[in-house]
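[step 3/7] inverse_fold.run input=structure_tokens len=132
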């Protein structure tokens, strides 16, 4: 039961916060720099695969170890480290190979990924502990 709550709470926090951030900050920023290179809509299949894969990563590397230790702060720290590595890898690789990739895109998305991954992992552990 605790693992299901961990997954659901982590996912809910991440998805809701990410949807808000994507619409209000990331999309306008990327639109400014990438203009016509962006699709008019989302490709839902790849988006769903990303979120499922990333939720698995957050659970494996941050949520489950912190839940076992009874240490939500460990989830926050390990989640932030995971977000820093994952989003940094994406942003730095994109900046390396994409003509119009802008340093402001790198900074904002990298910081966001670091923060939201840690916060979602932490919130998931808190929720799982509350029902256990």
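[step 3/7] decode complete -> sequence:
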């Amino acid at each position: 039961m605790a693992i299901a709550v961990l997954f659901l709470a982590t996912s809910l926090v991440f998805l809701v916060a990410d949807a808000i951030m994507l619409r209000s900050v990331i999309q306008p920023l990327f639109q400014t720099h990438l203009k016509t290179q962006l699709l008019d809509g989302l490709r839902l299949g790849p988006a769903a695969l990303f979120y499922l894969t990333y939720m698995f990563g957050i659970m494996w590397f941050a949520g489950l170890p912190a839940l076992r230790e009874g240490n939500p702060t460990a989830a926050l720290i390990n989640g932030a480290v995971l977000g820093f590595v994952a989003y940094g890898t994406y942003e730095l690789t994109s900046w390396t190979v994409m003509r119009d990739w802008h340093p402001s895109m790198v900074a904002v998305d990298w910081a966001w990924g670091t923060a939201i991954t840690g916060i979602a992992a932490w919130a998931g552990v808190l929720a799982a502990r509350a029902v256990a």
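[step 4/7] annotate
The mean pLDDT is 97.
The radius of gyration is 16 Å.
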